[in-house]
Amino acid sequence: QVQLQESGPGLVSPSQTLSLSCTVSGGSITTNMHYFSWFRQPPGKGKEWMGAMAYSGNSYYEPTLKRRTSISRDTSRNQITLHLGSVTPEDTAVYYCARGTDLEKGWDRMEYEDVYDSWGQGIQVTVSS
Predict the structure, then answer these.
(1) pLDDT digit string (tens) for 84-107?
(2) CA triplet 128, 22, 63: central angle to 5 degrees?
């Protein structure tokens, strides 16, 4: 059974770049048609899709975050990493990674939680000086 584990700093200073990793066990990040997304949930709000990395290495981004966001991968470590630049206190949230297994069906619905079959437990990130 696949497991996803987020890791990274719990506290980041404003204007810095936040980097979070999602380590996948029990499955490969290069499995055909699989893709891995990053979501975040600010206090008192719903989950927000940020972007995704597909099995092929292609990446997809939420348009309003695209300027500050990049997603990379390390196939040797089976990790997907989120980089969010120029953070502000408004980026304070619980960050999650999630796996989708059918890119052909999910490519235009990545922002919807129901296309994902596995989620990490989430990691709290606070942006504060």
Answers:
(1) 999 999 999 999 999 999 998 888
(2) 70
